[in-house]
Structures are given as C-alpha cells and as structure tokens.
Design goal:
Distance between the termini: 77 Å
Order of helices and strands: HEHEHH
Structural class: mainly alpha
Number of helices: 4
Radius of gyration: 28 Å
Length: about 110
C-alpha cells in the first residue's frame, strides 16, 4: 500500500484518481478496503482465466502436472519449518565433526608401524 500511495503522491493523483481497475486477487480487494477508493474488476483477467486456467484443467497431462506441482509446493510450504530444523541440525553435526577432526589433528598420537 505504501508504494501505491507514494506513486499517487509523486504524480499528484489524489484528486485525479478515483477508481482502481484490478483483478480479483485478495490483496487488490484489501487495498480497496484500506484506501477507501473504488475498484472495478477487470474482465480481461476473467477471460484469461477462463481460456488459460480452465483450459489447462481440461487437458489431462497439464492437469496431472499442475497437481504434482501443487503437491510439491504444498509440501515445501508446510514442511518448511521441519526442513529448516533438519538443515540446522545437519550444520550442527558437521560443525561437531569438524571440531573433532581439528582436535584430533592437534593432539594426534603417531601410530608406529609394527
């Protein structure tokens, strides 16, 4: 919202700008509510969604690929915290191994061949 307001301010659009033409994305709807300005839905976005998005849904291969991609994204989003913990633990383990190797190098006892 700050960036939009700064553009309005920089170009002196306060008295000129009365309406926003947007798609149906929730952040645009929220902007309308916060700014107090009217918003008109862009029909071009709706047509695009009907042709592209709905068209893809009707193609079996594309539908399968989309489903797989959504599963991967969902797994990464919802498992992100778990993955971060695993990475943190792995780094901790690597640091411990490095410390042990450095310690062994400092205090190593030469092994004599028998």
């Amino acid at each position: 919202m700050k960036s939009v307001n700064s553009v309005i301010e920089n170009y002196s659009l306060h008295d000129k700008l009365k309406i926003h033409i947007t798609d149906q994305v929730s952040n645009n709807i929220m902007f309308e509510e916060l700014s107090g300005r009217a918003r008109i839905r862009c029909d071009a976005h709706g047509l695009r969604n009907m042709v592209v998005v709905d068209g893809i849904k009707n193609t079996d291969r594309a539908k399968s690929l989309t489903t797989k991609c959504k599963s991967i994204v969902t797994a990464l989003v919802y498992r992100g915290e778990d993955l971060a913990k695993i990475a943190e633990f792995s780094c901790y383990e690597i640091n411990n191994i490095n410390e042990e190797l450095e310690y062994d190098e400092q205090f190593s006892i030469p092994i004599e061949a028998t």
